[in-house]
Amino acid sequence: MSTAPDQSADPSAQVAVTLDDCAKEDAATVLGTLHASFSSDRSPDDLPADSGDGSPMVWTATFDVSRTLGLPGPARLTAPVDLTAQGGYRAVDRLREGLAEAFSVKVTGTAAGDQEQEARLRLDNQ
């Protein structure tokens, strides 16, 4: 795992993203889209891979949404992707807004805490 040198020191700007139950190509598309907008604890070259034995995979990364690097264009998925985002309320909203530049985004569930939330998002082609 690579560490981005410009990660924010502000933990409220960090969003942990988890992708599971999707094709590695779709995971790469989603993570690539997020890398186009936000810095991350993972290198953009750190592409999702298969487990090799056919067992389910989970891909994770943490994104710093304190500043937008750029806006991605629409991206294509082979199937809808479910994503879990966990972080501060504003940070999760900024991540969702960034994803909405490339995908149709539907909030399918949330769990609220005192200072952070977990949001389940369904991504599909626009």
Explain this structure:
The structure is a single chain. This protein has 126 residues and is α+β, with helices and mostly antiparallel strands. Helices cover 21% and strands 33% of the residues. The protein contains two helices and six strands, in the order βαβββαββ. The chain has helices at 24-37, 89-100, and strands at residues 14-20, 39-40, 58-64, 81-88, 104-112, 116-124. The protein has a six-stranded antiparallel sheet, with helices on one face. The longest helix is centred in the N-terminal third of the chain and has 14 residues, at 24-37. The termini are far apart. Residues 1-6 have low confidence and may be disordered.
Proportion of residues in β-strands = 25-35%
Which range best describes the helical content: under 10%, 10-25%, 25-40%, 40-55%, 55-70% or over 70%?
A: 10-25%
Q: Determine the mean pLDDT.
A: 87
Q: Give the termini distance in whole angstroms.
A: 31 Å
The largest β sheet comes out as: 6 strands, antiparallel
Run of helices and strands: EHEEEHEE
Count of DSSP H/I helices: 2
Q: Poorly predicted ranges (pLDDT <50, ≥5 residues)?
A: 1-6
Name the quaternary structure: single chain
Write out the strand line-up for the largest beta sheet, numbering strands in chain order.
2-3-1-4-6-5
Coarse shape = globular
Number of strands: 6
List the helices and strands and how they pair.
Layout: E1 14-20, H1 24-37, E2 39-40, E3 58-64, E4 81-88, H2 89-100, E5 104-112, E6 116-124
Antiparallel strand pairs: 1-3, 1-4, 2-3, 4-6, 5-6
